[in-house]
Write a structure and sequence with these properties.
The chain has a five-stranded parallel beta sheet, sandwiched between helices. It is globular and about 40 Å long. It is α/β, with parallel strands linked by helices.
Amino acid sequence: MMDAEANTGNLPEERAETAVNGTASIIVGFDGSEESKQALAWAVRLGRLTDCDVEAVTAWEFPADYGYAFSLVDWDPDVDPAREFDAAVQDLFPEEKPSRLTLSVHKGDPAQVLIDKSHGAAMLVVGTRGRGGFSSLLLGSVSSKCIHHSSCPVLVVRGTQAPFAGASADAPAGGGIAG
């Protein structure tokens, strides 16, 4: 028999309560692709509506150029992810960087890193596809693995529609998002 305490944080009601109290984060996969930039925009919008911090997560493993259309021999994991992130944030939020947005960089399989980060998160946001070389796929392998193995709700962002187009920035957070 499973101890009731062991499941704390896995129920949608508990996760929503944590998000409302601002103690949980929205995790967003970020690899610099256009899809991940859209996911970042959606995550920040959701973070504002739910009073959550947003943690953009970049994960890498060598060979880092597997499936890429270009070589990443000169790519530096200590410098380049932050540079790409800063450029994307400047592009998405030219007026002011969101104060509750951070970047973390991890060595490891991107899907597994995001799945691990989903434990205790309010939500995981990913783009449909990242920088992988299989552009004909509707859903990338990282997104697919996250959907199937995440410990929290997963939002997969497709296309270029702005988050909640037409909604006011001061719109109430209630209603419309369920875990």
